[in-house]
């Protein structure tokens, strides 16, 4: 049985209903979960900013597809509430920046910093991630 406020079919809705999925296919971010992937990223390039440390590595061909990203915060960031808040902010920053600035075939690990990640204004957090990506993907001579 459906709840009383749920429409039986699409005709009950005024106007045109939006599509269930976006018409344009956004870049999908896959979350790193295996420790080995985090360790591989730790041995690769890294760039620090005021609010986070970003580690990045180019994957081997055929290893995985798309952009993969991981998040971590040590106990230096604070208690569980503070670490989770910092990781939530890093996740949102990654969702906003990586589809446009990240590169396909790369793994990124965003590491929160004590006090800075949770307290920095969100726009500055986004700018920090963009800066780190530009440095990581720039020419290294």
TrEMBL record:
Gene Ontology cellular component list: ribonuclease P complex
GO molecular function: 3'-tRNA processing endoribonuclease activity; ribonuclease P activity; tRNA binding
Class of this enzyme: hydrolase
Lineage: superkingdom: Bacteria
EC number(s) given by UniProt: 3.1.26.5
Keyword Manganese (UniProt): no
InterPro entries per UniProt: Ribosomal_Su5_D2-typ_SF, Ribsml_uS5_D2-typ_fold_subgr, RNase_P, RNase_P_CS
Biological process terms in GO annotation: tRNA 5'-leader removal
Region of interest: Disordered: 1-22
Catalyses which reaction(s): Endonucleolytic cleavage of RNA, removing 5'-extranucleotides from tRNA precursor
Keywords, alphabetical: Endonuclease, Hydrolase, Nuclease, RNA-binding, tRNA processing
Family: Belongs to the RnpA family.
HAMAP family in UniProt: RNase_P (MF_00227)
Quaternary structure and partners: Consists of a catalytic RNA component (M1 or rnpB) and a protein subunit.
Function: RNaseP catalyzes the removal of the 5'-leader sequence from pre-tRNA to produce the mature 5'-terminus. It can also cleave other RNA substrates such as 4.5S RNA. The protein component plays an auxiliary but essential role in vivo by binding to the 5'-leader sequence and broadening the substrate specificity of the ribozyme.
Name listed for the protein in its UniProt record: Ribonuclease P protein component
Lineage: Bacteria, Pseudomonadati, Pseudomonadota, Alphaproteobacteria, Rhodobacterales
Gene that this polypeptide is encoded by: rnpA
